[in-house]
Amino acid sequence: MMRLTIFGATGRTGKKLVAQALEAGHKVVAYARTPSKLQIEHERLAAVEGDVHDAGQVASAVAGAEAVLSVLGPTSNEPTYEVSRGMANIVAAMEAQGVQRLVQSVGAGVSDPRDQPGLFDRAIKVALWVFSRHVYEDMARTAELIRASDLDWTLVRVPMLTDDPAQGDLKVGYLGQGVGPRVSRADLATFMLEQVEDPTWVRQAPVISS
């Protein structure tokens, strides 16, 4: 059993992440602007109200955690860069308190030096830039912040997310190396939880798919 702090807990992926963490026996601090949206009650769950842009609140939520998981994502295609600004507070709180393990989900469009993108991958990235430029920039900044930290981080890069049941048997690698175009939120939650205690992908940014 570990004590986990989860950011983005009330989103569609966040709810699955919280539920799976509790099923696995972990203690969970679920941090959200509106904790009532979580709609989960459990003796090992503490639903904490707060804003990721409040450094003090973030520090309190991280205190005592053994690992931090984040499924924060932009809510609009506006140049507010809410996720990267919040991640700066999360990283600072973790480094100040000696919490080393961070697992963050980002889109597969966020590049990595190990990628070998094909034509389809390049086309998707162009489309993201044209239609969701600020979303892309926010998550790219988030990844850059995390990579520059001294934390034991893993960036879990995901293609199109679905609400399908968990498939299991995920493909894990880099663009152009056999990963597919979609993955379920349930499978993403499972993979992220596995990374908490598995060092295989520490300081790496794999793409996962069904």
**Shape category:** globular
Distance between the termini: 28 Å
Order of helices and strands: EHEEHEHEHHEEEEHE
Q: What's the arrangement of strands in the largest beta sheet?
A: 3-2-1-4-5-6
Beta-strand residue fraction: 15-25%
Give the overall pLDDT as a whole number: 93
Structural class: alpha/beta
Number of strands: 10
What can you see in these coordinates?
The chain has 210 residues and is an alpha/beta fold. 36% of the residues lie in helices and 22% in strands. The chain contains six helices and ten strands; from the N terminus they run βαββαβαβααββββαβ. The protein has helices at residues 12-23, 55-62, 82-97, 119-131, 133-147, 185-195; strands spanning 3-7, 27-32, 45-49, 67-70, 101-107, 152-158, 160-162, 171-173, 182-184, 207-209. The strands form three sheets. It has a six-stranded parallel beta sheet, with helices on both faces. A two-stranded parallel sheet has the order 7-9. β4 (67-70), α3 and β5 (101-107) form a beta-alpha-beta unit. The longest helix has 16 residues, at 82-97. It is globular. The two termini are 28 Å apart.
Write the layout of secondary structure elements.
Layout: E1 3-7, H1 12-23, E2 27-32, E3 45-49, H2 55-62, E4 67-70, H3 82-97, E5 101-107, H4 119-131, H5 133-147, E6 152-158, E7 160-162, E8 171-173, E9 182-184, H6 185-195, E10 207-209
Parallel strand pairs: 1-2, 1-4, 2-3, 4-5, 5-6, 7-9
Antiparallel strand pairs: 8-10
